[in-house]
Amino acid sequence: MALKPVYKVIFLNQGQVYEIFACAIYQSEMYGFIEVEEFVFGERSQLLVDPAEERLKNEFAGVKRSYIPLHSIVRIDEVEKEGPAKISEFKGDKIAQFPFGGMTPRPGQE
User: Fold this and answer.
1) Is 20 left (phi over 0), alpha (psi -120 to 50) or beta?
2) Domain map of the chain by residue range?
3) Taxonomically, which superkingdom (predicted)?
4) What Å distances lie between residue 86 and 1, 16, 77, CA to CA?
5) What string of pLDDT tens digits covers the 110 residues of the chain?
6) How far apart are CA 88 and CA 67, in angstroms?
7) Given Cys at both, which of 9, 33, 70, 93 links 28, Cβ 3.0 to 4.6 Å?
8) 51 close to 88: Cβ distance less than 8 angstroms
9) Cα–Cα distance measured from residue 110 to residue 76, given in angstroms and rounded to the nearest whole number
10) Residue 33 forms beta bridges with which residues?
């Protein structure tokens, strides 16, 4: 039986860079969003607790599906296994958000 693929999703959220792992990612029926399901958090021993991963685990506790705006996505990679989920501060030196002009109606179609 084949193993389910694991995806690493890196996106911007409120001035921070989120790095999460999930088994199901696809384009949403809601225009401009990616759906992320089946979040994967590393199983760590109780002796070693990563506060950043625990914060993410708590933030996504009870979340069945998350909708992430396309313009917030930095990168999506298919990886062999999950790593530590983390949140880091956005410094702006190497990550740029895609420009998003939005959808404006043409004159006469308002």
Assistant:
1) beta
2) 6-13+21-89
3) Bacteria
4) 30, 10, 15
5) 557 889 999 998 888 888 989 999 999 999 999 999 988 876 654 556 667 677 777 777 888 899 999 989 999 999 888 887 877 777 666 655 555 555 555 666 55
6) 20
7) 33
8) no
9) 36
10) 69
Which residue carries 């039986």 as its tokens?
Answer: 1
Token pair in block for residue 32: 């401009």
> What is the token pair recorded at 44?
């760590």
Phi, psi (rounded to 5 degrees) for 70: -55, -40
Burial of 49 (C-beta count, 10 Å sphere; 0-12/13-18/19+): exposed
pLDDT in tens, 23-51: 999 999 999 999 999 888 766 545 566 67
- Contacting residues for 14 by C-beta, under 8 A, at least 6 apart: none
What does each C-alpha distance from 78 to 18, 22, 41, 67 come to in angstroms?
Answer: 16, 10, 15, 19
Closest CA to 20 of 47, 43, 40, 5: 40
